[in-house]
Write a structure and sequence with these properties.
Elements: H1 21-45, H2 47-67, H3 74-113, H4 144-154, H5 162-169, H6 193-224, H7 227-241, H8 253-273, H9 277-280, H10 287-290, H11 298-320, H12 333-360, H13 367-402
């Protein structure tokens, strides 16, 4: 059985060499259909864990039905895949907003406090979208600086030479030129306008993303009570007991499944070839940021091919799971998993950058708040660039030796 990964359940039955394609598919689909049904019960005890299990099972069922579609009823498979995509998107929305908020608060605190920036060498990027604790508050440790930052935000603070004039009006002795400092006092944070607007930027992001997360949670609850969801659950229950296979599935597994899995990998390889990997392979190329400075939605359009590759990579990896061994010329799922994790970080950073840009378009925010959101957006686009660079290095180690023959 092909190697499984932390986000997958262990295989119940390993396919034998003499099994038919239908038996292999029925065993795999039945395993994950049962996981789907168990997740429904789990959700009553732990809502977050149940949602994760539902998404995990739905992705695998959908990917296998897509890859091995010639072996199942095509109309039924297409209908179920459409419904499973709807369910995954609905469940993912709430988690996505929470992950964006955690990531942006952490990044904003790091930037405003002047903490050392991580080295984007393809390792773990800061705040890669894991949903954990709430993170440090943006204004934590600001103390006296918060009041000064607020004054700077409204332009209320005295200028660098105002203290002498104020002192003269109050009868104090003016400092002599020899003892006065020719430069204004340095900002203790070392970040100037960024520190001034960080607290308000963090509050704005928290307000917007918390509201979006609450709405997504309400949409999830409505979805679980809808007739559409109950129809999906009934279809998955049928899949667990009697999958609608075609007559072609009676052929040996190796004869049918391997070519279809190889085709899934070819689709992935073609999509990767269309990416600007030659440019992404240069560190600090600024390609992920440069286009966003010219047009507001350019970053989202630029990210679409990378998101498509991420989806195709998942489909390819899941298609290999029912097989005892991957086809010749197709990489082991473990190597695809590493590349997929890098594209997960790419997606996390791109979504966080889009959230920061959306907040920066809020009407009537102060210049300091807009500046802090702009720096935060640029920081997340730099994370996008780092993830692309890491993926290009990983793919170079996969593609040359693994491109299958056409």
């Amino acid at each position: 059985m092909a190697q499984r990964h932390p986000d997958s359940a262990p295989a119940l039955v390993a396919p034998a060499a003499d099994r038919t394609a239908g038996e292999v598919l029925a065993g795999y689909l039945g395993e994950h259909a049962a996981e789907f049904l168990r997740a429904l019960r789990l959700r009553t005890e732990d809502e977050a864990a149940g949602a994760r299990s539902l998404r995990r099972a739905s992705r695998r069922i959908s990917a296998v039905l897509l890859t091995y579609e010639p072996l199942v009823d095509p109309v039924w498979a297409e209908s179920l895949r459409t419904e499973l995509r709807w369910l995954c998107a609905t469940l993912a929305r709430e988690q996505r907003y929470g992950a964006d908020l955690t990531r942006l608060r952490t990044a904003l605190h790091r930037l405003a406090s002047g903490a050392a920036v991580s080295d984007h060498d393809g390792g773990t990027l800061p705040g890669d979208g894991a949903v954990g604790g709430e993170g440090e508050p943006v204004a934590a440790g600001d103390g006296p600086r918060r009041r000064g930052g607020a004054a700077a935000d409204h332009g209320e603070g005295p200028g660098p030479h105002a203290s002498g004039r104020v002192g003269a009006r109050r009868g104090r002795v003016l400092p002599s030129p020899a003892t006065s400092s020719p430069e204004p006092a340095a900002d203790p944070s070392g970040r100037g306008p960024l520190a001034a607007g960080a607290a308000r930027a963090g509050a704005l992001l928290e307000r917007q993303l918390t509201l979006a997360r609450t709405r997504a949670h309400s949409a999830t609850l409505q979805a679980f009570g809808s007739a559409r969801f109950h129809a999906v659950a009934d279809a998955v229950a049928l899949l667990a007991s009697d999958p609608p296979l075609t007559g072609a599935a009676a052929a040996p597994a190796g004869q049918l499944l391997l070519p279809l899995a190889e085709h899934a990998y070819r689709r992935l390889a073609d999509a990767v070839d269309a990416l600007p990997l030659a440019l992404a392979g240069y560190p600090y190329n600024a390609h992920a940021l440069r286009a966003t400075l010219a047009d507001a939605p350019a970053d989202e359009l630029q990210d679409v091919p990378w998101h498509q590759v991420r989806g195709l990579l998942r489909v390819c990896r899941y298609a290999l799971e029912p097989l005892a061994e991957p086809p010749a010329g197709v990489p082991d799922p473990a190597r695809l998993y590493g590349a997929g994790r890098t594209l997960d970080r790419h997606r996390d950073a791109a979504d966080a950058a889009a959230a920061a840009a959306s907040a920066a378009r809020t009407p009537r925010i102060t210049p300091a708040t807009g500046y802090a959101l702009g720096v935060l957006h640029a920081d997340q686009r730099a994370e996008v660039e780092a993830a692309r660079y890491a993926f290009s290095r990983i793919w170079l180690g996969i593609a040359p030796a693994t491109a299958p023959a056409s």
